[in-house]
Design brief:
Layout lengths: L11 E4 L9 H8 L5 E7 L11 H7 L6 E7 L3 H11 L3 E5 L6 H10 L3 E6 L17 E5 L14 H9 L7 E5 L7 H7 L4 E4 L1 H4 L4 H9 L3
Parallel strand pairs: 1-8, 2-3, 3-4, 4-5, 5-6, 6-7, 7-8
Length: 222
């Protein structure tokens, strides 16, 4: 049985395991679990983006050890082919790239049949207006504030205006997630002020000397 996406009305922090210690992945997930409701899992195929990361087997291995919402971001060319494998492995939410799916509405419908939450995302260079074709059908929109493919990149300032534009498209029951260069004390508060309520953070958490304190600051908009 899948875990539900947190309802709107809260600021959620989704630690990105792309920045975790892969030799101690279970330990790092257990470390952040008491402080968050979501875990962000970046899936890359070396084709849609120039990196290869996490397959379904890793999700399956983590699933018995966590009660967090598994927020799986498919940065892959063939999401319709592989998404069901991630759901079977334990994904609770599947986010796909609008640029990589020929039939977005059909893909969303297929994911609904599998019982998971669905999100859509776009690269920084993709016009926000293109989201209108599918935005009404999803639970969450993910705004990439960096080029997808690698962690630790610098936040793109134009993402603030893009965030505001996407927020204006959403219903009150839809989440707006932002990924890339999110840190407390700077980009975190700015992107929340622009309408985001779900913050993906990797280095800001797992490279911090006090990951739980970083999560607390982000969740408080500080």
């Amino acid at each position: 049985m899948t875990i539900q996406l947190p309802p709107t009305g809260t600021i959620e922090v989704a630690p990105s395991i792309l920045s975790a210690d892969f030799a101690n992945l279970g330990r790092d997930v257990a470390m952040v679990e008491p402080a968050v409701n979501m875990l962000h899992i970046d899936v890359m195929d070396g084709h849609f983006v120039p990196n290869i990361t996490i397959g379904p087997l890793v999700v399956k291995a983590l699933r018995p050890h966590s009660k967090l919402f598994f927020d799986v971001h498919l940065m892959i060319s063939d999401a319709p082919r592989y998404a069901p494998e991630y759901v079977k492995a334990g994904a609770d939410g599947i986010t796909f790239h609008l640029e990589a799916v020929a039939d977005p509405a059909g893909f969303v419908a297929d994911m609904r049949k599998l019982g998971v939450s669905v999100g859509v995302t776009i690269k920084p260079g993709t016009p926000v207006e293109l989201l209108r074709a599918v935005v009404a059908d999803v639970d969450m929109v993910l705004l990439m504030a960096v080029e997808p493919g690698f962690g630790g990149q610098k936040f793109m300032p134009e993402s603030i205006d893009r965030c505001r534009a996407i927020k204006a498209m959403l219903r009150p029951d839809q989440r707006l997630e932002v990924d890339g260069g999110i840190y407390p004390g700077s980009t975190g508060p700015s992107i929340i002020a622009a309408g985001a309520d779900t913050l993906v953070a990797g280095n800001a958490i797992f490279a911090s000397p006090d990951p739980l304190a970083a999560i607390k600051l982000l969740s408080e908009g500080k």
